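Reviewers asked in the last cycle whether our approach scales beyond single polypeptides. To address this, we selected a multi-component target totalling 632 residues and predicted its structure end to end. The input consisted of the following lines:
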Amino acid sequence: MKLDSEHLEILAVIVEKGGLTEGADALGKSQPSVSRSMALLEKRIGSALFEPGRRPLRPTELGQRLAKLGGQIRSANQEASLLVRRFQQGHAGRLRVGGTQIFMDGVISTMIADFQSRHDDVQIEQSYGYMDGLAAGLRNGTLDCAILPMPPAQVPAEMTFVPLLPGHNVIACRAGHPLTRRKGITLADIDNYTWIAPPSDSPLFRDLQRAVKAIGRDDFRVSFSGGTLASIMSVLTGSDALTIMPYSVVFLARRSLALDVLPLRIEHPDRQLGLLTMTGQQAPAALKRFSEFLTAEFHRLRNRMDHELQMARRRG
Amino acid sequence: MKLDSEHLEILAVIVEKGGLTEGADALGKSQPSVSRSMALLEKRIGSALFEPGRRPLRPTELGQRLAKLGGQIRSANQEASLLVRRFQQGHAGRLRVGGTQIFMDGVISTMIADFQSRHDDVQIEQSYGYMDGLAAGLRNGTLDCAILPMPPAQVPAEMTFVPLLPGHNVIACRAGHPLTRRKGITLADIDNYTWIAPPSDSPLFRDLQRAVKAIGRDDFRVSFSGGTLASIMSVLTGSDALTIMPYSVVFLARRSLALDVLPLRIEHPDRQLGLLTMTGQQAPAALKRFSEFLTAEFHRLRNRMDHELQMARRRG
DNA sequence: GTTATTATATGACCTGATGTTATGAAGCTG
DNA sequence: CAGCTTCATAACATCAGGTCATATAATAAC
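The resulting structure, written as structure tokens, was:
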């Protein structure tokens, strides 16, 4: 025989509050309603839950013990309500975030760390990919959002793109690199150094090809390839090799690594680094939070980058 | 917002079984019923519990977590059902047993120990009293049963008395007492020894008075009084004092103490030691068990006492 | 791709639990 | 014993939740 959990919860409150009337109050129900629920429960189990003929209603031994179980049920139920609320407010949940490797590793991951320290119950599943894969992930529901560089004109119809930062690539090198001491850098200067290549299927790699071509060369010497950001940084700071990177990545990495940027403008399509999501789809609330958080963080990041730019101009 | 515990339980089963249809089966409900319950829950919380457009229904992150809480509720509920069943079968519960001191201490307490070793969840609250107090306790519901000597004719109308043993008192002394070596014991013989008096308000004390009077004396010397069974036994075995006691108490005590019984018949009203309960009242199931248990135990006790009587007759 | 199969959702209907207010009965208190 | 408090009951309305029949949609099979 299955008991009604609701009945047990009511019982728990009555016993806790010390009386049917007070219990009804605490439950926000009318006294007769509660009374009848208990009568029904007693009828079901065929035993008394309360000592008969006692006016401040006192539980029997059985009533007492069932009330305890009712209390367990009650607290589980309350926790469930709480959980729902937190999910809806985005304080809990799962967020599947996809993005391009270098940018995720160099910029987003520290922001995710910040985000999680404020929303400790949001579980983030990160994955890597480029535009096509990420879009597919969004479409088939295995991703909640994607962070990637994108020409605003190419945003798929059913998706929304929130730009976060201009997609500005630079040529990076170790601090103190010989080229940083030159005033005017020439083709020949650059030609003396090898390149660290980003993954060969990445847009960054194509950017590198394009940039080199724009400088007037068809090929370039690759001294290191196939690594993720961590390896690239190690090679970069430990050698005179050059690489191409989003400026934001260099900017942030400079806080802990000795890096520098060559004063050379690189041509590439007008892209924005931003957040891509499915448009109509009802998004998890945590996504909204995450999106707002990223927007704010990138706003700050931009300010800091602009500020540094001012300083650099003043200096030279 | 309060969620329906029933819904959470259903969710738990669905998630556990891996599908709505299987879950409905496991719950013994129809598939549409379960489907609608989930639809209702989703509507209430305003979020999806299952990934949309997945045929073997798969829970969302929120659904997964709520299901876990539903599982907790479910197991508490099941435990409640179990508890009720055990109560009804008398394997659990509380039994308030009252009785006369000497008899409770000397006979019933060991039986209670036996009973509890078989019904480990029955909690026994023992109290002492004599007829009037015990009857009052039964009437006002502070006692579930009483164990006491009673003349069958005096059983109150609203109560039921189950005789367990003839209320046969004897004069006890230490083993090896001088009187046990005599063939015919005379008044004068007894007069040489002092008495250990049972509590002065006990029927046993009145029995002692009556017995002494029947022998032809009006008074008797009391060397010890006011003790419970344990003290009485100590004094009895450590001195030549005599006392009056139910034979059953002496019989059982002899297993571990050096006691003997004087071959003197004591006159007293025709009483039965037995179990007194309220008649109509719906008794706790544990009481029925206890009553049956006592009946069986006393049956065995009687057989053993009879057997010893046979042996004693044969010997002398 | 089309069909078959299986899984889930929906409609129509009925029962029963639960909410309400008004009121009666019974224990507790002074 | 009077009066207060506490609980139970009656009468009624509403809605959750049970059923079966059936539609729809995802997956599997061909």
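Residues 4, 6, 29-30, 32-33, 36-37, 40, 53-56 of chain A lie near DNA strand C (CB under 10 Å from a C1'). We regard this as preliminary and will revisit it once experimental data from Aim 1 are available.
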